[in-house]
Amino acid sequence: MSRHPIPAREIERLVADGQPIVIHEGYALDLGAWIDRHPGGRLAILHMVGSDATDQINIYHSPKALLMMKQHRLGPIHEPWTNLTPPIRSPEFQQKPAHEKGADVHTNGRRSRRSVDLGSAAAVLNKKLSTTATCTRRTSPTASVDPEKQPLIPASDSAADKKSARERYATALEHKEVVAGLLGNPSVDAETQRAIIMEYRALHEQIKAEGLYSCRYVEYLKESVRYTLLFATFLYLLYSKWYLTSAIVLGLFWQQIMFTAHDAGHRGITGNFVVDTLIGAFIADFCCGLSIGWWKSSHNVHHLITNMPEHDPDIQNVPLFSTSPTYMKSILSSFYNFQFVWDGVADFLIPYQRYTYYPVMALARFNLYALSWAHLMSPRAAQLGAAWWTRPVEIAFMACYWALFGYGLVWLTLPSWPIRIGFVLISHLATMILHVQITLSHWGMPTADLGPNESFPQRQLRTTMDVDCPAWLDFVHGGLQFQAVHHLFPRVPRHNLRRGQVLVRQFCERTQIKYQCYGFVKGNEIVLGRLEEVAKMVTTLVDCQRYMAETGESGLH
């Protein structure tokens, strides 16, 4: 390890050459030899390349893991560090073949420094927001979209022209949302963000000093009693041949027990990776038929790049839903390595998304089954280094679930096809509240990117909503009502988050970051309002294109 500070231009050169360099506590870390063994997956590292990830690393890792970081140090860097844009956020990265990404380089029988294909950062760094002329045919879809400043939509009805116009329109809307974000939050200048970071680190020390990382196991004893009562009630009703009523109780059991799987996925129970992973796999895979590995794979990325349309898998739902105008540009997902094409189906469905939200949430569990198996059959499930064993464990547990639920219960126990179909639908519909809870804290929040200098705590609080409820209702929400607190400190056990909320409110008062906390009903209204807002953006575009195709007018005065 070099004892002399590494120049910033040298770090830039290493990143451009494909080295996954991450800054941590004033040192440059070369994680090329570790990236394929990282239990949290490659993407969690790739999204931090070139950035100071001190806070993200510290809140996600145990003291033992943080100590291990030292062996990857290249040397100190000059501070303060100016973040680079991680190259994975350039489209070129995902367009390259998988075998070109992260291959080992061997020289004379010895492994040389690993070069990981990070893509070209130039495309991202050189992107310019542009606004064009106006389309004055329609009135403003929302208060934030001034009809006198909407982009020109040309009269041509060719596919290329329509795509170009749609992208310019989306870019202009993105720009307006960025401006609103800059005006409504603390400045992203280096001095302001540095002050926020120092306050955040002091808050983290207070969280540790108050023992909020210590799990209160007596609370899980209470949880276990509730789970047992629900499951016993389900069995009793099933035995009594109240089949469809028992289905409701089974759905509520699934909804409640998955909160503990969420805790285990964040190592918020024992703090031990193996033990918590097995707890999570037993609950999610064996009891519920859902892959905890798939959830962790997407959830780790979601926590690091919350509400970034191109990168956060939790908000990538086109053509069913769009929470950002960015999706009108047919974005390439860095998580799925898949392009979400905006086409006529999206033009038709998105305007109605406010009305389809709850019906789709009611059926969302079926999609989770498909995503779970797709993950376990994908190479990503095997790229976990020392955690390789989780894949066969999950496959075995999920096979047991389908043997017990699919064959033993639905096929052998239920007496007829109408009851079987009704049981499956009702039990899955009963989990709808969980899917609403999962989406509630983010789908109504901003998706604008305020740049690489925005601090981790400010972005998390800007893009996350908490749900206000009395303490006696905490069991209904299962800790998901404290999403903003949880995003700041993901390893804090669920039952300590209410105390953490008090400290986060104080932090927000000191830093002038808005703490967004609303009641459950109000939170639903915000989500539906955002869905309606984006729907009107799409309606404006579609109507404008249709009118100009019919009349040949340019839309200009």
TrEMBL record:
CDD domains: Delta6-FADS-like. Its EC number is 1.14.19.18. The keyword Phosphoprotein does not apply. Residues 93-116, 134-160 are annotated as: Disordered. It holds the Pfam family Cyt-b5. It is an enzyme of class 1 (oxidoreductase). It is a multi-pass membrane protein. This is Delta 8-(E)-sphingolipid desaturase.
